[in-house]
Amino acid sequence: MEDFVYFFTFQDPSIAWVVLGVTLLGVGSAYVGTFSFLDKKALLGDAISHAVLPGICCGFILAGEKNPVYIVSGAFLSGAAATFMSSWLRRNTKLSDDTIIATILSVFFGFGIVLLTALQKSGNPEVAGLNSFIFGNAIGISEDDLMLYGGLSLVIIVVLTLFLKEFRLMVFDPEYGKAIGFPMKFISFLFNVLMILAVVIGIQAIGVVLMAALLITPGAAARFWTDRLNPLLILAALFSVLSGILGTYVSFVLPQMPTGPWVVVFLSIFAMISFLISPKSGMIFRYVARKKYLRKTHRDHLLKALYKASEGGKTGLTIEEIYELYPYQKPETNQSINDLVNDNFIANNQYFINLTEEGVSEAMRIVRLHRLWELYLNESMNIAPDHVHDSAEQLEHLITPELEAMLEQRLNYPTLDPHQETIPRPNKP
Amino acid sequence: MTFDSNAFLIIFTGSLIAISCGFLGVFMMLRKMSMTGDAISHAVLPGIVIGFFVSGSQRSLEVIIGAGLLGILATLMIDWLRKKARVQLDASIGITFTLLFAIGIILINLLAYKVDLDQECVLYGEIAYLPIDSWITQNGINLGPRITWLAGLNFLFVISFIYLLFKELILTSFDENFSSVMGIPSKGINLALMSIVSYTTVSSFESVGAILVVALLVVPPATAFLWTKSLMPLLKLTALMGVLIALFGYYLAYLIDSSIAGMMVTVAGVFFSISALIHSRKLIHSKKPSVIGGTSSTSGQFGF
């Protein structure tokens, strides 16, 4: 508990610095990564994280030391080369996208390893710091580096915010953007620059392999909560910052633990929770909604069956007859019967089921919708009568009163459906 | 030039690994699962760590079983995320392998007192030590480098797998619906393929490292694909390239004193670039209209 208080009240300035750095980094990566995720280019970020390695090594070779300017520039050129080559391969060869990304990723990284091991064998003591590029070392970043990279992250965030509508166009409708005069090529280029920058900053904290998580997971998680871009970006940034702080905290409490992997674990937890419980897109919600829908359709089918029995002259059906209509669905049938009794649409007199007055008008409605739709498909869409039943089976549950009125009008209040059955309407006194 | 047995051993082992990975990679490429293969090579890390922890050694059967299981787990996770949770494919792959790799690193740190795994070693191996790491039986007979035996075993498994399941692999790669109709369990074949990839990854990680296994899985088949679209020539070209990569990789690494595995990948990359350049010029010179500066509305699954 003491640790918790100590950490979160930021009494220790180095903790405050690290949290600040992680926050800025997380927000920058989440912003860039979310756009890339929406553009379905999520794994390109992974490729770029691997591809910057040769550039970093070259920068180091030229500078002779771990000079940030050289390293970032080198990484930048390397990343840009990777992006360019990917586009070139896509345009000029028949290789599939995943093959191209995997090729660029591994070749650049392999070449980077060659440079790195050559450097390691050269005996230059500064080389030890380069290893943190591959595996990340959030806490090991010096204060000067933090200022530089924090500043760069801020630049990324600011540029993304300023050019929000341009990037929005780039992701969602580049053709339109081009048509109204935006320089789409330049915007794509600018975005790639920001992405490479975010990667270069990020891999120092979290490492090459895990960088992809910082880019992809926040956006993927946030996507399940909202359809609109601004809330999406803010939520993604929030997930990223929270995970960053939690990860740093774990690393603080358990000193032998590296920060990066814990950040990824927390991000993934947020993501999994989002996938499960978010309203509308979440798994639990979809499962419950589907169950409810199935119950409703079953109830509607039951009402239809009773109505059709009445068209055939019977006053109702025994429960055995109903069970036979829906084989292997006894529990669902019982459930529907209970629901309908509660709604007062049917009456259950000692296992003989018949429609109440309200039940009759509700059943008529469903049958009417079914037959109207069949007629519509048959007459206006020229579909043969034996092909219209399945579509009507599905749509009878969904057609609204407004749509019903439109259908009636369009078909001119017909009396018969394509199978020569009457279209039932309530008798108006 | 005298016959350098060390060099021969290294090149031979490198070829075995390159060919095993290459053959598997041909099928992965045809199924458009190259990035999944990349994900699996990262995702096996927790399995390796747990196997190491359970058995106390880096070179045990438990490690291989652990890796195989993790490979299957990763494939299932990606599939679950995509189909049940409805996350897009590239994000599913990204989330899965980063989570599993992160867990692996956490486990390494947690179990550090018993698990002596070096992150660097796992990621990019060092094949140069191969000749000095010999398999000495209880009778004291030196049977040669342990890793060569491992690579040979792996090679045999891969070849048998492909040979025995050749028809099924082809069918499920080219026409999954038809294969289902025929009664071939395409999901099962997929899982089997991914398990063999995991096993190959683990088997090779001591020599070339997990990340460079990906390069050997992807680049030679991609290069071969630039030259031919038929399956048997693809496999043969990939095999040939495997040998050449090992050969050039070794000597060039020796020249500049660097990682042999990294150099093998670089050589593969050079072959790839040359092939790409040769074949694209053909495209430009031919009379067919080429799409210069493609539009982003034609972006594919990973689009760019």
Q: Could you please describe the fold and organization of this structure?
A:
- The complex is a heterodimer of chains A (429) and B (304).
- Chain A has 429 residues and is mainly α.
- Chain A has three domains: 2-278, Orthogonal Bundle (ABC transporter involved in vitamin B12 uptake, BtuC); 285-355, Arc Repressor Mutant, subunit A (Orthogonal Bundle), CATH 1.10.10; 360-411, Diphtheria Toxin Repressor, domain 2 (Orthogonal Bundle).
- Chain A has helices spanning 2-8, 13-38, 42-63, 68-92, 97-122, 131-135, 143-162, 164-172, 174-179, 184-206, 208-223, 229-253, 259-277, 283-311, 319-325, 330-342, 357-380, 389-395, 401-411; strands spanning 317-318, 346-349, 352-355.
- Chain A starts with a helix and ends in an 18-residue tail after the last helix.
- With 304 residues, chain B is mostly helical.
- A two-stranded antiparallel ribbon of chain B has the order 1-2.
- In chain B, a hairpin with a 5-residue loop joins strand 1 and strand 2.
- In chain B, helix 2 (34-43) packs across helix 4, helix 8 packs across helix 9 (176-182) and helix 11 (210-227) runs parallel beside helix 13 (260-285).
- Chains A and B meet through helix 3, helix 4, helix 5, helix 6 and helix 11 of A and helix 2, helix 5, helix 6, helix 11 and helix 13 of B.
